[in-house]
Amino acid sequence: MQITHFGHSCLLIQAGGARILIDPGCYSQGWAGLDDLDAILVTHRHRDHVDPVLLPARLTAQPELAAHVEPGVLEELILPTSTAMVPGDRLQFGQLSVDVVGGAHALIHPDIPQVGNVGLLVRAPGEPSVFHPGDALDVTPQSVDVLCVPMYAPWAKVSQTIDFVRAVTPRYTIPIHDGLLNDDGFELIAGHLIERTSGRFVPVRDQRPWTVTTAVTL
Q1: pLDDT value at position 80?
Q2: Half-sphere exposure of 70 toward its Cβ, with a 13 Å CA cutoff?
Q3: I need a surface site. Which of 82, 87, 94, 140 has the fewest CB within 10 A?
């Protein structure tokens, strides 16, 4: 398995003979030129997870490319070749499967309407598993090799982030949702995770692919 971080919450995951791109938002760079994608997946409607200009243009130019999005995304944007995905769905791309979980975005403030959000549990036979939670910390699947951890958000405290990682107990944690953090802020939060959670924190922040080779033994 290879994971490439294109900034903020955007990841390219290659496993099981498939290539899927998750959450190409407006704080992410470099993803628009990717080829040989099997699908694009979007966890929710916020612009930092779905670029309202580049993604529609990409899907219009490449109508054979499948996109699976949280239903609220289709209320905001016209996305050709897109279908809604809801909790309980299982998507299959070659030998790579994606289980859709969750349902609600984390609460930002009672005055701000709460929108939908899905988490994505990615697996392929004999390869590590990956969990991308989108913008929520309430779903904590077990037997996860790689947990994608939102590092900074207006809806989360560091204490909640630590408890989220502790509840999942992954082998590795990697950062997402870090587009608004400078280097000092990133190091501060990473330090808390390294000191107060188990597993290995891997600072995957640039566009060099990270190869993950260790899978959970069930």
Answers
A1: 87
A2: 28
A3: 94
